[in-house]
Specification:
8-stranded mixed beta sheet, globular, 12 strands, about 350 residues
Amino acid sequence: MSQSLLEVSQLCMRFPVQSDLFSKTKRWVKAVDGVSFSIASGQTLGLVGESGCGKSTVARCIVRLLEPVGGIIRLMGRDITHLPQWRLRKVRRDVQLMFQDSADALDPRMDVRHIIEEPMLVQGGESSKTRQARVLELLDRVGLPKSSLNKFPHEFSGGQRQRIGIARALSHCPKLLILDEPVSALDASVQSQALNLLMELQRELGLAYLFISHDLSVVRHVSDRVAVMYAGKIVEEAEADDLYRAPRHAYTQALLQAVPAVGIAASAQPVLPGESSGSIDPPPGSAFGHRIQHPLVKVTSTMDLTPVAIEPGHLVAPDPCALSPEDVQRLGIKLPDPVCLS
C-alpha cells in the first residue's frame, strides 16, 4: 500500500455555546469527535453523511481554517496540527480546499486572470511572465478558452465557475485537493463533466482527493475508499465496492436505501425513524442508538466505539445498536446477560 499523504488521527473540534446572554455556563457543540483516516497519494477518499454530521468541519480543520481542539493532522509525515499561521504558507502549496458554491468562492471584482494568478502572488517567487504562462496552461487544462482571461465570474455558468476554481486550486501544483460538495450545486449533466475532469486531472497529476458529499451515487463514481460519518464520528470505512456491496453499519445501510433508483417510486416512509441527535452536549454512547431508541443504547455508554476491522480493510464501529447479531458476535462484543439480539 502507498505511504499515506495525509493522516488524521483522533481529530476533535468543538464550539462553545451560551444558553443566553447572561449565562456564564458554556455548553459545547461536538462537531467532530475522534475522527481518524488516511489518504495515499493518487487516492480518493469519499467522506459522506447527512448535513450537520461534521464533514465540512473536518475539511476546515485539515487546512487549518479552524484550530482543532484535539487529535493530530500529518501531511507527508509532518505534524501540521498546531503550526503557526506564518508557517502554514508553505503547507498550503501542497493542500487546497475547494468550496461548494463557486459563485461565493470567486471574488466578483476580479477577472479570471487575477483569480488564478492570486495564489501565485501570495506565495511569491515567480516572475510575471512565468505566472501568465501558468494561468494560460491552467485554463487550457480545465477546458476554458483563452478568451476567458478578462471576464468576470458572473459571466460564466456554474460549471465554468467550478472549472475556474479548479484552475486556481492547481496553481501551485498541490498534492491534495479537499473537495467540499464540489458538484452538488450543478445540474446532472454538468456534474458528470466536472467529475470526469477531476478524475482526468487525478490520473495526469497524481493528485489525492478528499471528496466530501452527501450524494452516495457521486461518491461511488469517484472514490477508492469511502468513510461514513454520523454525529461527528466515522462509523464505517471500506473500499468503495465493498461498502456498497455489503454495508455493515445500519446507518450506512439507511443511506444506501435512500439513494433514488430509476423507475422506483420514492417511499413516503422515512428510511430511519427519528431525527439526528443534536451535537450540543450529546449523551454518552451510541448517537445512532439514541436516534432509533435502541434497547441496548445504555450499554454503549461505557463502550469504545472507535471503528475496528470486521474484515481486512473494512472498518466499522463496534456498536450493538447498529450491527446485525452475527456481526456483534463476529466482533466479540460483550453484552450483559440476558440480552436478546434477534
